[in-house]
Design goal:
The protein is α/β, with parallel strands linked by helices. The protein is built from 13 helices and twelve strands. The chain has two domains: 234 residues, 3-Layer(aba) Sandwich (Aspartate Aminotransferase, domain 2), CATH 3.40.640; 125 residues, Aspartate Aminotransferase, domain 1, CATH 3.90.1150. The strands form three sheets. The chain has a seven-stranded mixed beta sheet, with helices on both faces. Strands 9-11-12 form a three-stranded antiparallel beta sheet. The protein has a two-stranded antiparallel sheet with strand order 6-10. It is globular, with a radius of gyration of 20 Å. The model has no long low-confidence stretch (mean pLDDT 97).
Length: 370
């Protein structure tokens, strides 16, 4: 059986293998395992790519969210508004700093944070709102920031949108954003890695110090910090892949357009709902997510997987319906759009190297599964 993966990491590696091998040899020769020239070069290159002044490489995307929150002055006892439909790491980063996640529903269609729901969730103890840029496109930031009280910061979770913009704006521009370079992302490392993005030099310096045990010089600790540093080997991988990211995102857009065409009949028949792009967004299609309307989604996933199609679900349970956050006191029905999405969404294989023939097979198999 010819397997079609959800994400083809092997194909991605083959494109950069020689360059990565040469870069690893440089790092090994210089023994620059933590930080070093490769990390500094990547930070500059990614800041330029993302149209922000500063990029601070860190150990992973969850740490990046935590560090961005800490740098924004969020701490114990504060409340942070996050979407109910997000990967659990968004809530986890809030909890790790002693703050309380406060949930808000998403918009139907895009599944992005509903700005009005976020505003309605703001209370006296709220100090931040975290819009999650889901599936490859940006949630509303500028309009939301303009409507928030002055003491409430916006901290963007940009783990799924490397290269995306909204109304010409990139994550972190005019504020602060966190991103992840987990291997399956549009820009993926060969292990865990992440970054904080900002135009504010003071915020960047504070993030860098906090992620380095609280200081920028050995045995000088100016703030309370911890260890979350990007290593040189991961920076080599990220630099090689960054040089190809724009082309990879363009290939993802082309593949998403092919899926739209191939799925048009199923959509017209009401069997699936196709993904939508919010006005002003340049989508980078980290995931291609459809909604299954009139059958058991998990049964469809099982049938696809049995036929060698690497379909997945992002995410099968909203934050409030996980055991870890039961203490927030919510029940089914509290966030209906997030719950509806969690019950129906299905991610189809999408990666820059996917072929039209592979996509046709995915859709043919999906049609049979439905």
């Amino acid at each position: 059986m010819n397997h079609i993966p959800l994400v083809d990491l092997k194909a991605a590696h083959e494109e950069v293998a020689d360059e990565v091998r040469a870069g690893f040899e440089r790092v090994l020769a210089n023994t620059a395992f933590i930080g070093g020239d490769e990390v500094r070069a990547f930070e500059r290159e990614y800041a330029d790519f993302g149209a922000v002044a500063h990029c601070v490489g860190v150990a992973n995307g969850t740490d990046a969210v935590e560090l961005a929150l800490r740098a924004s002055g969020i701490g114990p006892g504060d409340e942070v508004v996050i979407p109910a439909n997000t990967f659990i790491a968004t809530a986890g980063a809030v909890a790790r700093i002693g703050a309380r996640p406060v949930l808000a529903d998403c918009l139907p269609g895009t599944h992005l944070l509903d700005p009005q729901a976020a505003l309605d969730a703001v209370g006296p103890a709220t100090r931040a709102v975290v819009p999650v840029h889901l599936y490859g496109q940006l949630a509303e930031v500028t309009g939301l920031r303009d409507r928030l009280p002055d003491h409430v910061r916006v901290v963007e979770d940009a783990a799924q949108c490397q290269g995306a913009t909204r109304d010409g704006r990139s994550p972190g521009s005019g504020g602060i954003a966190a991103t992840s370079f987990y291997p399956g992302k549009n820009l993926g490392a060969y292990g865990d890695a992440g970054a904080v993005l900002t135009d504010d030099e003071n915020l960047a310096d504070l993030v860098r110090a906090t992620a380095n045990h609280g200081g920028v010089a050995k045995y000088r600790h100016d703030v309370a910090g911890f260890n979350s540093r990007l290593d040189g080997l991961q920076a080599v991988v990220l630099r090689a892949k960054l040089a190809r990211l724009a082309d990879g995102n363009a290939a993802r857009r082309a593949a998403a357009a092919r899926y739209d065409d191939l799925l048009a009949d199923l959509a017209a028949a009401g069997r699936v709902v196709l993904p939508t792009t919010a006005d002003g967004n340049v989508h980078v299609w980290h995931l291609y997510v459809v909604e299954v309307t009139d059958t058991d989604r998990d049964d469809v996933v099982g049938k696809l997987n049995a036929e060698g199609i690497g379909a997945g679900v992002h995410y099968p349970a909203p934050v409030h319906l996980t055991a870890a956050y039961r203490h927030l006191g919510h029940a089914r029905g509290d966030f209906p759009h997030a719950e509806r999405a969690a019950d129906r969404i299905l991610s189809l294989p999408l990666f820059p190297q996917i072929s039209p023939d592979q996509q046709r097979r995915v859709v043919e198999t999906l049609t049979k599964a439905l």
